[in-house]
């Protein structure tokens, strides 16, 4: 490591140890930059090589024009990569396949090896098959290993075959919580050089690390693989939105309420493709756990990152979580030396500004289908009554009586802690009609009840977003304690689950004596993983599922997660709400969304009606337990041998050698097809002729709609494939668990049960019109794509605004490409999916401002020609191409935004580009 053209390599003395650092003050203009751009600037200084990173790139960043639209490209080299198993297994499959491709092209297969630390946490495979019993955890883990043995053997092989690749075994925690509690360095010390920890991940919620000052975000698995292999990530110097926080959260509100408020604000403001950075006096007063919660939800805002600078709260957290004193001292000394230590009184220069007074935050939920659709808890009942009309055919019953109780004015809108002496005031609903469809259900244990629209079928404490936050988790446990003492329990139709983000959570529950109360109301531990948040809810009880589907009931889910998209949580549940862990338990006790949870009794206890205010814990009580029950010893003990795993993990039989021995009978792990027949040099880019529309889609189509996820439904192409290969229905497992098998995944692409393909009328699911079969009004999308492929017909997808929002799922792009889609034409894209499309050789085109498929009169029945793409062969990127659709002609904007992306597209994808680059070297 040597000084660059700025001569910026200097020494930093910390205690008795000396480090080399690249000083930011060697570059004129660096002092005025926001924290996030200072991290990027150091990255460029350290990686300057005169080719990918030049002195001009460094000057461009130091001279950042806060008000300008992004136009300057830079190459960002992350210090490390983090993965979870759903998205990580395909990465390892691709790396194993690349080794064979390099060998076949005459290269050295061992060169395919991570050049930077790459860590995977297995957290996405546990499904809540069992709940509400003391042995739920053990039973779920047992089934997890039975289902995923092939995948886990493959990952164990990868851990031995690849250098710099480590795996955190199942049953440890959720990737993002493990990251901030243990894996994140904040400041790296590598080969005597100290530099900021930066990390990209194969999960969009990698941004949780932004809460401890680590710059990073979610990327597609293909980008992550390239980063592991030493490739920088091309990006435009972004606009940075400064978000000022003032004041303090009022009693009765939580970090969840705060983050839902911020999500609503930033979605309304518009931050797609931008950095968001928090500053102000309110930041200094914000616990690290709350910062991590906010950072976690960055994908729900649409921003690239949502970062907090390093300060005393950061180092306090590092000490709590067991980092060494040497590491903590380095973090503080480095941040202060480089001008990266938070000064709450200073307002950096930003592109745009927002401000939130924390004291104005109120208890909130979000739903029924998007995280940004925030609802004040005080309005949840009436909002549900309005929204449910979209999920039922008609109103079957009259409005309820319009008389409820509410809190005294002095306690509204926060939850009262004033005791039972408060005299309630009159409160009236607005009279919204409530649909009724009461269905009698008898469970196998003899329990009988009536199920109705709005009943809460799932109430899950899940997801890294909230389970990493001890304040909301302790709050939930205390609420459970208070509920048990009042004689309350969950309603019998509610599937409850507790899936913490790490073992530390259950440790502090045990130390505080709160576990028995959670168990008593059905919140037994079900696993350490993402569970319900990613659709691993598991089945509802059969009698409940049958009643819901036979009677088309609009039941609900309440979960402490970050995603509530349609069809994500459970195929039986139509309406999904995000809430804090205490509110999740409250709704499990109430059993319905059709309740004014703040003012109506939530249930009858041993001494009469119980109100939420009666059992809601005081913030002082929560803080006292957090302070007394969480210690450094918990973290050091939990993470002492984090990569070793239990006897199940260590006992897996694994193959050996640099090349993986593919099992042709495997339905979990198959050799990837991306390099089949690949030549050493790419073919010229070609225009698209005679394309047909595979799907015509509307606005806000998420990667959940595109990428296979959740259960594999009998009768679908994926199910048929598995059955043809001898897999019994009970062993289907989930799409996520089979991401290492492209044959399953392409059959599930665009197969979400809530997808609305406008080529068909009033049809939901993975269907389309197959124009190769005029006699067939409706076909599975996979079957139609196969028919088009047989005829040599390329495909396009038409879409509306925010196409590809949501998770960083690489299979949303991989599946699209493998189905034969050559181009997508949308009104706008979310950042990650647009990038992933290019990484798979799919051309992202955008309608010009003010235009759409509808305004241009496109029905999707046309045959498409796209010309002007061949201009990419000349080295540049055309701004526009010409699209002809039968008798219509229009211009579309080419959304290849950087020269680096153009190189990927010319090579047919990012992995092909990397592989050819390695061969040339």
Automatic annotation (TrEMBL):
InterPro entries: AcnA_IRP_Swivel, Acnase/IPM_dHydase_lsu_aba_1/3, Acoase/IPM_deHydtase_lsu_aba, Aconitase/3IPM_dehydase_swvl, Aconitase/IRP2, Aconitase_4Fe-4S_BS, Aconitase_4Fe-4S_dom, AconitaseA/IPMdHydase_ssu_swvl
Domain Aconitase/3-isopropylmalate dehydratase large subunit alpha/beta/alpha, chain residue ranges per copy: 64-591
Statement: the UniProt record of this protein carries the keyword Iron: yes
Cofactor(s), by name: [4Fe-4S] cluster
SUPFAM superfamilies, alphabetized: Aconitase iron-sulfur domain (SSF53732), LeuD/IlvD-like (SSF52016)
Pfam families: Aconitase, Aconitase_C
The enzyme's E.C. designation: 4.2.1.3
Key words of the record: 4Fe-4S, Iron, Iron-sulfur, Lyase, Metal-binding
Domain Aconitase A/isopropylmalate dehydratase small subunit swivel: 719-849
Gene3D superfamilies given in the database record: 6.10.190.10, Aconitase, domain 3, Aconitase, domain 4
A GO term, aspect molecular function: aconitate hydratase activity
Catalytic activity: citrate = D-threo-isocitrate
Broad class of enzyme this protein falls into: lyase
UniProt region (Disordered), positions on chain: 395-438
PANTHER family found in the cross-reference section: ACONITASE/IRON-RESPONSIVE ELEMENT FAMILY MEMBER
Sequence similarity: Belongs to the aconitase/IPM isomerase family.
Protein name: Aconitate hydratase
Species assigned in the record: Actinomadura algeriensis
Top-level taxonomy: Bacteria, Bacillati, Actinomycetota, Actinomycetes, Streptosporangiales
């Amino acid at each position: 490591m040597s000084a660059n053209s700025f001569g910026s390599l200097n020494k930093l003395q910390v205690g008795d140890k000396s480090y080399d650092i690249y000083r930011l003050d060697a570059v004129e203009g660096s002092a005025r930059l926001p924290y996030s751009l200072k991290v990027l600037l150091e990255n460029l200084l350290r990686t300057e090589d005169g080719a990918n990173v030049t002195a001009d790139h460094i000057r461009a960043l130091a001279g950042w024009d806060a008000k300008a639209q992004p136009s300057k490209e830079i190459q960002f080299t992350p210090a490390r990569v983090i993965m979870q198993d759903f998205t990580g297994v395909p990465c390892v499959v691709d790396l194993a396949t690349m080794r064979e491709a390099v060998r076949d092209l005459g290269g050295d297969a061992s060169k395919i090896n991570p050049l930077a630390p790459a860590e995977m946490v297995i957290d996405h495979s546990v499904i809540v098959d069992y709940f509400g019993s003391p042995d739920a955890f053990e039973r779920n883990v047992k089934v997890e290993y039975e289902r995923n043995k092939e995948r886990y053997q493959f990952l164990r092989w990868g851990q031995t075959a690849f250098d710099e690749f480590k795996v955190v075994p199942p049953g440890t925690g959720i990737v993002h919580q493990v990251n901030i509690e243990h894996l994140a360095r904040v400041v790296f010390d590598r080969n005597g050089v100290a530099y900021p920890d930066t990390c990209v991940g194969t999960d969009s919620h990698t941004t949780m690390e932004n809460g401890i000052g680590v710059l990073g975000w979610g990327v597609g698995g293909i980008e992550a693989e390239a980063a592991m292999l030493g490739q920088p990530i091309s990006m435009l110097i972004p606009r940075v939105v400064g978000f000022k926080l003032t004041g303090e959260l009022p009693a009765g509100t939580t970090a969840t309420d705060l983050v839902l408020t911020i999500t609503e604000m930033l979605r309304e403001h518009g931050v797609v493709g931008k950095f968001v950075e928090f500053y102000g006096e309110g930041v200094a007063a914000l616990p690290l756990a709350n910062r991590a919660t906010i950072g976690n939800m960055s994908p729900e805002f649409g921003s690239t990152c949502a970062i907090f600078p390093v300060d005393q709260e950061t180092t306090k957290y590092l000490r709590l979580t067991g980092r060494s004193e040497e590491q903590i001292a380095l973090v503080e000394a480095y941040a202060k030396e480089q001008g990266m230590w938070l000064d709450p009184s200073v307002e950096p220069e930003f592109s745009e500004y927002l401000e939130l007074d924390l004291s104005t935050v109120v208890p909130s939920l979000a739903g029924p289908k998007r995280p940004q659709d925030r609802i004040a808890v005080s309005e949840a009942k009436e909002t549900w009554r309005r929204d449910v009309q979209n999920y039922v055919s008609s109103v079957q019953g009259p409005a309820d009586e319009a008389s409820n109780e509410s809190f005294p004015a002095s306690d509204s809108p926060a939850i009262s802690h004033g005791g039972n002496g408060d005299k309630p005031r009159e409160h009236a609903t607005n009279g919204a009609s409530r649909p009724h469809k009461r269905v009698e259900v008898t469970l196998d244990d003899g329990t009988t009840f009536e199920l109705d629209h709005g009943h809460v079928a799932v109430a899950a404490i899940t997801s890294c977003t909230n389970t990493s936050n001890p304040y909301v988790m302790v709050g939930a446990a205390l609420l459970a304690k208070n509920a048990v003492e009042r004689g309350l329990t969950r309603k019998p139709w509610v599937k409850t689950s507790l899936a913490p983000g790490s073992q530390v959570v259950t440790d502090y529950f045990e130390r505080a004596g709160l576990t028995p109360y959670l168990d008593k109301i059905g919140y037994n531990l079900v696993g350490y993983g993402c569970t319900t948040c990613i659709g691993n809810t598991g089945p509802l009880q059969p009698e409940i599922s049958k009643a819901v589907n036979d009677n088309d009931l609009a039941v609900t889910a309440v979960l402490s997660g970050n995603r509530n998209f349609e069809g994500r949580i459970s195929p039986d549940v139509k309406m999904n709400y995000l809430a804090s862990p205490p509110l999740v338990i409250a709704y499990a006790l109430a059993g319905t969304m059709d309740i004014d949870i703040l003012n109506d009794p939530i249930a009858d206890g041993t001494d009469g009606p119980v109100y939420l205010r009666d059992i809601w814990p005081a913030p002082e009580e929560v803080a006292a337990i957090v302070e007394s029950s969480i210690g450094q010893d918990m973290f050091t003990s939990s993470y002492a041998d984090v990569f070793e795993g239990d006897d199940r993990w260590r006992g897996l039989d694994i193959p050996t050698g640099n090349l993986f021995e593919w099992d042709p009978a495997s339905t979990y792990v198959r050799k990837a097809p991306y390099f089949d027949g690949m030549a050493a040099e790419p073919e010229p880019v070609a225009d698209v002729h005679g394309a047909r529309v595979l799907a015509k889609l509307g606005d806000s189509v998420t990667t959940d709609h595109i990428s296979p996820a959740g259960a594999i439904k009998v009768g679908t192409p994926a199910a048929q494939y598995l059955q043809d290969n001898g897999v019994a229905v009970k062993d289907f497992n989930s799409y996520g668990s089979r991401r290492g098998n492209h044959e399953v995944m392409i059959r599930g692409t665009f197969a979400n049960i809530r997808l609305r393909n406008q080529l068909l009328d009033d049809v939901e699911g993975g269907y389309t019109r197959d124009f190769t079969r005029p006699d067939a009004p409706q076909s599975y999308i996979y079957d139609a794509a196969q028919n088009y492929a047989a005829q040599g017909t390329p495909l396009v997808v038409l879409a509306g605004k925010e196409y590809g929002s949501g998770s960083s799922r690489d299979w949303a792009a991989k599946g699209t490409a493998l189905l034969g889609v050559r181009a997508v034409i949308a009104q706008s894209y979310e950042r990650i999916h647009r990038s992933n499309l290019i990484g798979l050789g799919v051309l992202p085109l955008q309608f010009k401002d003010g235009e759409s498929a509808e305004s241009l009169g496109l029905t999707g029945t046309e045959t498409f020609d796209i010309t002007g793409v061949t201009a990419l062969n000349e080295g540049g990127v055309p701004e526009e191409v010409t699209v002809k659709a039968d008798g219509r002609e229009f211009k579309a904007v080419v959304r290849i935004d950087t020269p680096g992306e153009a190189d990927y597209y010319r090579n047919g994808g990012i992995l092909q580009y990397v592989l050819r680059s390695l061969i040339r070297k």
